[in-house]
Design brief:
By secondary structure, the protein is mainly α. It folds into two domains: 1-114; 126-367, no CATH class. It is built from nine helices and ten strands. The strands form five sheets. Strands 1-2 form a two-stranded antiparallel ribbon.
Length: 367
């Protein structure tokens, strides 16, 4: 079973990584801005295909090595479970290494061809576009908070039934491997951490809602549809993750209270099912947004449209991954490589929303 889970998880992850260059905005190739009239550039297409092929080839190689290792040795259950978590990280590391290689290739090509030289760069926005936004309202994120509050009440009600030693860490096999003495704080650690995470998801959703909606100068109509679609489905995915995290933590708390009533198979399966559902949700988001490519059809702005292009913002993107623009009031912006949003590292409020909860969680755990 463990081997099947590894192959399925790695297959999903590898497929998603291979698809990323083809589902992000076509005016951004490996984190580099290109003009709309270069989206069908033969060399850029070759870079994308080569990235996908190498990712596929190396993923197959990693799985082959794992298969040979597991067939020629007798790995323990802990080793197999560790491999389930380790191999996806290997795939991610390899794909990101390939990304940086092709990022440099596209950057060099852009400089050589001087695609943005002597061309008017513009930024397009619509003031009334937010009225069409279909992101989930903040009230939806109260639902997982209600679940968490219910978990707190349930824990307090059954406090006397809790074991004298409360689990504080779970190993790769899903079983607790570190404990602390029972106190009200230790018993409520998981629910309190969960409540902080619920608040973080709510904050991310609201800051994303207030972020700017950037449209394509080459295709305003289609990019409008794509941006609204991206905002809508990322909001739903974030809500799904918030619900799933609440369910996972509730399960872990339940195993603490009734440690002998949950089978080992269920302890292993539930976290893996959580990971699988999040991965499937991400794939669905990628497909939904990828279908709304803002650069599939270039609409004519005016007779000199070939001289009008999107503003080149590469100077604000470090390595095409990290966005730092003090002039942009947006806290979150669309990723250049991947699906979803990333932080504008020039906005201090973003650090508070992302790092603040982590500090609070760390304090709760240490106490």
């Amino acid at each position: 079973m463990e081997m099947t889970l590894i192959f399925v998880t790695t297959g999903f992850l590898a497929a998603l990584q291979m698809a990323i260059p083809f589902i992000v905005k076509r005016t951004v190739v490996f984190g580099v801005t290109i003009p709309v009239d270069e989206v069908k550039n033969v060399q850029l297409r070759q870079f994308k295909k080569l990235y996908a092929f190498l990712t596929f080839l190396i993923s197959i190689g990693v799985l082959a090595i794992y298969f040979i290792w597991s067939s020629t040795t007798t790995p323990s259950e802990n080793h197999l479970i560790f491999a389930e978590f380790f191999i996806p990280f290997v795939i991610l590391f390899i794909s990101m290494t390939l990304y940086f290689y092709f990022h440099m290739k596209v950057t060099t090509l852009k400089k050589q061809r001087q695609w943005f030289k002597d061309r008017k760069q513009i930024r397009v926005s619509e003031l009334n576009l937010r009225t069409k936004d279909e992101m989930l309202p903040w009230m939806a994120y109260i639902v997982p908070m209600v679940i968490t509050v219910g978990l707190v009440v349930f824990t307090l009600f059954h406090y006397n039934s809790l074991p004298d030693q409360i689990p504080t860490h779970w190993g790769p096999d899903g079983k607790p491997d570190a404990f602390t003495g029972k106190t009200y704080l230790s018993a409520l650690t998981l629910p309190l951490v969960l409540l902080v995470m619920n608040a973080m998801f709510l904050g991310i959703n609201e800051l994303t809602r207030n972020s700017g909606i950037k449209l394509s100068a080459g295709n305003v109509k289609a990019s409008r549809i794509r941006q609204l679609c991206l905002r809508k489905y990322t909001s739903w995915l974030l809500f799904l993750i918030s619900i799933l995290v609440s369910m996972l933590f509730t399960f872990l708390q339940f195993t603490t209270l009734y440690e002998n009533s949950v089978s080992n198979l269920l302890i292993i399966t539930i976290p893996l099912a959580f990971s699988a559902l999040v991965l499937i949700g991400t794939v669905i988001l990628a497909i939904k947004v990828g279908k709304k490519d803002s650069d599939l059809d270039v609409e004519v702005i005016n007779e000199d449209s070939h001289e009008v292009i999107n503003a080149d913002e590469d100077q604000y993107w470090k390595g095409g991954l990290f966005y730092y623009n003090p002039e942009d009031p947006s806290i979150f912006v669309e990723k250049r490589f991947g699906v979803g949003w990333t932080l504008n590292f020039a906005r201090p409020l973003g650090y508070i929303v992302l790092i603040g909860p982590l500090i609070v969680i760390l304090i709760v755990i240490l106490l």
